[in-house]
Amino acid sequence: MLKKAFTLIELLVVIAIIAILAAILFPVFAQAKAAAKATAALSNTKQLGLGVMMYQNDYDDYYVLGASWNTGSDMLCFGGGVCFSTWAWTTAPYLKNSGVLQDPSAGSNQNYFGWSNAVNSAMFTQFGYNYAFLAPFYTNSSGQFVLQPASSSQAANAANTVMLTSKWLHQDQSNWQNGTVWGVGPFLGGVLSDSTSEGVECGALLQNCFSDWGQGDQWDTGQIFGNTPLTDGKWTGGNAFRVANEVTVAWADGHAKRVNYNTLAAGTNFNYNGAAGSPGSNGNMTMVHAANYPWTLTKDCSQFIYSEGSGCAL
């Protein structure tokens, strides 16, 4: 008696059906994985924001500094006994988990110096802090940088004030070499630049920001941030749009959501796809309506340290 078996045609049909199903399902699986990472990133951002708010509750409603020195429990020390902490390390007791400093939608941080995971994550955070307005620095009469935290009571519209954003990654910069921490030292330098984000106006308006963060304008020449990829924040103030062209943001009232990168420049004439905000022309940016600008607490020109002549207008 003959045994029944698949014919060659039947076998080919089955293989073709499996191939078609795989072609349909694999992109769906990839999209589901990306969506899960995006949700985790949003959750991490919210937890970080709540950690900063818990810090405020213990420190008379003042925001955490972008960087602190010689606090007695600092993360790293230099020769001569100068020790420092980033905002992420200062708020670590409220977070309990350095993993929330990482963006699951991004790659893992490289450990250039063999630090512990907690120290490496707190130094090279993947979410940046809005220090320029929440804890700005000034130059005193001796030419030294002085950091001064703002009070949450100053917030005119906390729900529309940026606290943290997804930010650029060091290993994605084409001119990041040999793991050098640029400018690390008691003069701010990399201690601020490694863990913070800035508004897209930095380097264009006369705001006292630390750097222009690779915006591609005339200030960009020679800056370490000049070669960051577009998704990592080039031309958007260092604010990375890794998920659906959106930046993951924790707001000053504690909520978190993703927004289009143009939203972070509301109140200015910046437009990523337009003349004032396109590559090479950020120097033409002006403040159109400070009350709409999401980075300032007071929603007026008073937080712009060099507001005179900056184009800041109500």
Write up this protein:
There is one protein chain. This protein is α+β, with helices and mostly antiparallel strands and 314 residues long. The protein has one domain (9-303). Helices cover 24% and strands 11% of the residues. It is built from 6 helices and 9 strands. It has helices at 8-58, 87-90, 92-95, 117-123, 131-134, 190-193; strands at residues 67-69, 76-77, 83-86, 127-129, 137-139, 145-147, 162-166, 246-251, 256-260. The strands form 3 sheets. The chain has a 4-stranded antiparallel β-sheet with strand order 4-7-8-9, with helices on one face. A hairpin with a 4-residue loop joins strand 8 (246-251) and strand 9 (256-260). The longest helix has 51 residues, at 8-58. It is elongated and about 95 Å long. Mean pLDDT is 77; it is low at 174-187 and 212-226.
Topology order in helix (H) and strand (E) letters: HEEEHHHEHEEEHEE
Tally of separate helices: 6
Shape: elongated
Instruction: Report the major sheet.
Output: 4 strands, antiparallel
Number of strands: 9
In order across it, which strands form the biggest sheet?
A: 4-7-8-9
User: What percent of the residues sit in helical stretches (DSSP H or I)?
Assistant: 10-25%
Strand fraction: 5-15%
- Runs in which pLDDT lies below 50 for 5 or more consecutive residues are 174-187, 212-226
Tally of discrete structural domains: 1
Structural class: alpha+beta
What is the terminal separation in angstroms?
93 Å
Mean of residue pLDDT?
77
Radius of gyration: 23 Å
